[in-house]
Amino acid sequence: MSIAVNPDPTLVRCPWAGDDALYRHYHDREWGRPVTSDTRLFEKICLEGFQSGLSWITILRKRERFREVFHGFDIPKVAAMGEADIERLLQDTGIIRHRGKIVATINNANCALALQAEFGSLAAYFWRFETPDEHRPDDLSWEALRLLAQTDASRALSKDLRKRGFKFVGPTTCYAFMQAMGLVNDHTEACFCRAEVEAERANLVRPT
Hints:
The chain is an all-alpha fold. 55% of the residues lie in helices and 0% in strands.
């Protein structure tokens, strides 16, 4: 992703946004803002799986290539990928070359199709796990935030996804997904995004 203009350095942000322009852009424009697009929800749950054991900025810098090789995270297209695609992706230096995570993405696409058939959309399924806004201290680092990032709701989501056959969806991964997709507002009290996200969540028509 190319960032044409550096985000305003004078704004107060969550500490984990740091000084990197790409990270700040992600924090300002995406993180915590409610998402109801099945494609974006599927992409995020997959990329959170790839992030497991790594830093999110590593995934963010490779996100465009992930989108290219996984057909824009079009669920039916990913579900149709096979062994030849897996072998090809294992040679692609633009992504995380982890066989288990690549296989899990294809597996999860098939599981996502089943969720769509049962609930009408991924959004209708995931938004059942929405939780009240969290009120985090203003001095939490990204690492500290992730260490705290496991809740009853994320454990319930993780358990249900795994029961349905999803892979790489532990409770911490699920909470990171919930934070990013707006199922909870985890921006700190001082962050300029917090009020914006609260307003977006208040005006959101929940998928059913």
